[in-house]
């Protein structure tokens, strides 16, 4: 499909620079068989059915942005995928100054050696020393806010909490599964009281999620791979819910992509442990999920293509036009949508 079909104009004022407070007070646009409804996130229990199951991503964002020096040149690095115990793939700012074998000093006793350069322009970085890389990043790194926020304001102490979900357990993401940022203990209690269950999986979100689609046609776009895991108990639970007539509702496109990666053509979700580079566009047949909670996404992005695949392009174009006109807040710290095809 032509990528231009997924373009739209978004006023800068619609881009959220801070999350709603409290988190579950954000607005929520519901699209279901009855139409389109303006709600707030605390309405979620009433918008679902007893027996439904919400699936959250329990990845934890690491301080994956680093500023360093190679010789006399300043170099910025954004880690995006672990390749080994001490090796990470990273996007490099000022990459023309970097060569295979160069050492970057990130300060605080943290150094890394540049390895091979990938087809996407990223470099492998091998971190020196014996300390776990996670400890090195805690010393030298900072929270990797999305570029559309970082371009408007600096990262600050609030972001260390704001950009982490209440489910964050497994360190490894360099971007938050932002749909889950709306959830609070009070909302989870209300969902439980309404008979709506929850489960978790892990997908370590990479910085590739923010990369623009440069191809003119979706068929020519290559997704970055991300590592994920669904254990056997979780897979069994999801299958049991669906067999009993409940719906599996993914919270975030990351949860959705991993479930779909783990689901066969027989609509059975299986345990999964490995990389996924699934790219979902209109025409895709969904096999493992029955709905999605997600934020509002960038024009021409793979995420807007995904929600258009779930709900239909014309319907999502109308929903986004409604959201923009109604002052909904977009992107990572923005408002939510509940999509029930």
Automatic annotation (TrEMBL):
Pathway: tRNA modification; tRNA-queuosine biosynthesis. It is found in: Cytoplasm. Signal peptide: none annotated. It comes from the Bacteria. It catalyses: 7-aminomethyl-7-carbaguanosine(34) in tRNA + S-adenosyl-L-methionine = epoxyqueuosine(34) in tRNA + adenine + L-methionine + 2 H(+). Keywords: Cytoplasm, Glycosyltransferase, Queuosine biosynthesis, S-adenosyl-L-methionine, Transferase. Monomer. Transfers and isomerizes the ribose moiety from AdoMet to the 7-aminomethyl group of 7-deazaguanine (preQ1-tRNA) to give epoxyqueuosine (oQ-tRNA). This is S-adenosylmethionine:tRNA ribosyltransferase-isomerase. It comes from Sphingomonas floccifaciens. The gene is queA.
């Amino acid at each position: 499909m032509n990528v231009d079909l997924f373009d739209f104009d978004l006023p800068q004022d619609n881009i959220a620079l801070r999350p709603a407070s409290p988190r579950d007070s954000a607005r929520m646009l519901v699209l279901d068989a009855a139409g389109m409804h303006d709600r707030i996130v605390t309405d979620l229990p009433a918008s679902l059915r007893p027996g439904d199951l919400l699936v959250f991503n329990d990845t934890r964002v690491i301080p994956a942005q680093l500023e360093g020096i190679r010789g006399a040149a300043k170099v910025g690095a954004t880690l995006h995928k672990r390749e080994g115990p001490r090796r990470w793939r990273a996007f490099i700012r000022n990459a023309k100054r970097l060569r295979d074998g160069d050492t970057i000093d990130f300060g605080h006793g943290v150094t890394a050696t540049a390895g091979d350069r990938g087809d996407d322009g990223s470099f492998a970085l091998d971190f020196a020393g014996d300390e776990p890389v996670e400890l090195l990043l805690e010393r030298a790194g900072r929270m990797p806010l999305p570029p559309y926020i970082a371009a408007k304001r600096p990262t600050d102490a609030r972001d260390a909490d704001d950009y982490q979900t209440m489910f964050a357990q497994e360190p490894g993401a360099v971007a938050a599964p932002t749909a889950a940022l709306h959830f609070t203990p009070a909302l989870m209690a209300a969902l439980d009281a309404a008979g709506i269950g929850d489960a978790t999986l892990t997908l370590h979100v990479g910085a590739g999620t923010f990369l623009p689609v440069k191809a003119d046609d979706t068929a020519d776009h290559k997704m970055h791979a991300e590592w994920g895991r669904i254990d056997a108990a979780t897979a069994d639970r999801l299958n049991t819910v669906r067999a009993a007539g409940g719906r599996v509702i993914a919270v975030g496109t990351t949860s959705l992509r991993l479930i779909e990666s783990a689901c066969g053509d027989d609509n059975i979700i299986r345990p999964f442990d490995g990389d996924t580079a699934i790219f979902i566009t209109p025409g895709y047949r969904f096999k493992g999920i029955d709905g999605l909670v997600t934020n509002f996404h960038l024009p021409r992005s793979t995420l807007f293509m995904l929600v258009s695949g779930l709900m239909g392009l014309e319907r999502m174009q109308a929903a986004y036009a409604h959201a923009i006109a109604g002052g909904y807040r977009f992107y990572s710290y923005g408002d939510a949508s509940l999509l029930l095809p």
